[in-house]
Amino acid sequence: MSFKVLSRLPVGNLRLKPPPTAFSGSTSGCSLAVKHDRPNRRFTVSPGSEADCAVLLYRFTGEKEVDLMSTYVPETFRGHGVAALLSRAAMDFLIEENLKAHISCWYIKKYIKKNPLQRYEQRVIH
Fold this sequence. Notes:
The chain has 126 residues and is α+β, with helices and mostly antiparallel strands. The chain is built from two helices and six strands; from the N terminus they run βββββαβα. It has a six-stranded mixed sheet with strand order 1-2-3-4-5-6, covered by helices on one side. Strand 5, helix 1 (82-97) and strand 6 form a beta-alpha-beta unit. Mean pLDDT is 80; it is low at 1-28.
């Protein structure tokens, strides 16, 4: 099941930083879709092959609570906004499903602090 993150992003946010040579497409940026794999409780982005998949893992800790545990982006794609796409998808999932979250991942904590206008902080269990 695809998680339609890109449909809610303003056009200016659809671009990643200039891609590494492993990305196909123009040097001005590349649009990527985040997939929500509910059975495996993860969000994924595949900027290259499936082997190069970036992943955000979560687990349910209660009926309406999750733990956003970790993000992983392959080294060749780091620094190009892939982890931010995963983080936004996870936070939008919390909002859409009316969930609260424990944030174990340092990157997601940083993402929430950098995006205060999204009101993601209201979803965080401290």
